Amino acid sequence: MAVLRYIYIDDIYLLFKESEKSKISLQPLTNNNMISNNVVVSFLSVSLFFFLFFFSSVESKQFREAPQFYNSPDCPSIPANFDYHDIITTSAICFDHIVHVAMTLDSAYLRGSMAAIQSVLQHSSCPQNIFFHFVASTSADTQYLRPTISKSFPYLRFLIYRFDDSRVAGFISTSIRSALDCPLNYARSYLADLLPLCVRRVVYLDSDLVLVDDIAKLSATELGADSVLAAPEYCNANFTAYFTPTFWSNPSLSLTFATRKACYFNTGVMVIDLQRWREGGYTTKIEEWMELQKRMRIYELGSLPPFLLVFAGYIAPVDHRWNQHGLGGDNFRGLCRNLHPGPVSLLHWSGKGKPWVRLDSNRPCPLDALWAPYDLLKTPFPLDS
């Protein structure tokens, strides 16, 4: 009887690569073999299990189909010739009355993204007038991401844009948390270059949040005559903590904020005027600060500080209800936190702790129960009712 020869390996992946190259041959088992037929088969079976688990766990996630949501009778109409099942072209998204939403999309945060999409649609008075612009890394498997989105949201209007990591990789310096160093985390700085020119205004949302209010209200935020973006400001936060002593001790740098009332704002929820962004060349301005950061360390916190350097003190204010942020705790331990005082329109698990991770580990924070109803993940072993 022929069996696979026992091979010493130090990586399961190498075993399968070798198998693909037919370097593992079939040979008769003799008394000189050191292990039995059954042990070989068992070893390979266990190896196959762990290989498939570690290398396919993300792609194997299955999500439920979300219910379809319809416009209320008083919603502005989209041209009748728009067909959900047509291939979406640029001209199909240039209508008035469309609320444009931009999000990044990757396998690691896909579960959060699905919940965020669900929450946006569920609480919108005109869900059929929402268009999603997803930005994915060129290294991402869009052959998995696109059908996953389409299966859960068959009537969703969306496009996926490919973001070249190399465009920003040279500007990134290490921060206090590795997740903040992902090139896709910086894609929000390039929306004006990625999205069609006819998209003048977009609501940018992180993937670790849910809305409990109509996103059209947020999209309609008044930007005034000059502001490029709007976001909730937190002027009680210690603004100096977002930059290093090197920054504040250098007069030419610290004077950056001398003529403006600079306050902290969270970049996970922003309303952006893309036309003003393009006209002002703000992507270049952000990159210039990132280049300086590579030469002398002036901040520690990923993609946020360049936004503060360029926009703090110049943004249009948004009510705090639209970003109840920090529910993921700090960037080190991710401890549980309570809501800020006041009404809530958006819950944001910024910080290290993510609700789906804590729920899966059976160590949820109390507020994670507010995220759970929007979770579309299919459980692998559903319990009998």
Summed up, what is this model?
This protein is an alpha/beta fold and 385 residues long.
List the helices and strands and how they pair.
Layout lengths: L1 E3 L7 H9 L5 E3 L8 H20 L42 E6 L5 H13 L7 E8 L4 H11 L4 E7 L2 H4 L21 H4 L6 E5 L3 E3 L3 H5 L9 E3 L1 E2 L10 H4 L2 H4 L9 E2 L3 E5 H7 L1 H14 L8 H8 L4 E2 L28 E3 L6 H6 L25
Parallel strand pairs: 3-4, 3-6, 4-5, 8-12
Antiparallel strand pairs: 1-2, 6-11, 7-13, 8-11, 9-10
Helix pairs in contact: 11-12
Distance between termini?
48 Å
* Biggest sheet record: 7 strands, mixed
Strand content: 5-15%
Radius of gyration of CA atoms, rounded to a whole number: 25 Å
Number of distinct beta strands: 13
Helix content: 25-40%
Structural class designation: alpha/beta
Shape: globular
List the total number of helices. Answer: 13
Please state how the strands of the largest beta sheet are arranged side by side.
Answer: 5-4-3-6-11-8-12
Structure description:
The protein is of the alpha/beta class and 385 residues long. Helices cover 28% and strands 14% of the residues. It is built from 13 helices and 13 strands. The protein has helices at residues 12-20, 37-56, 110-122, 142-152, 166-169, 191-194, 215-219, 245-248, 251-254, 274-280, 282-295, 304-311, 355-360, and strands at 2-4, 26-28, 99-104, 130-137, 157-163, 201-205, 209-211, 229-231, 233-234, 264-265, 269-273, 316-317, 346-348. α11 (282-295) packs across α12 (304-311). The protein is globular. Residues 1-58 have low confidence and may be disordered.
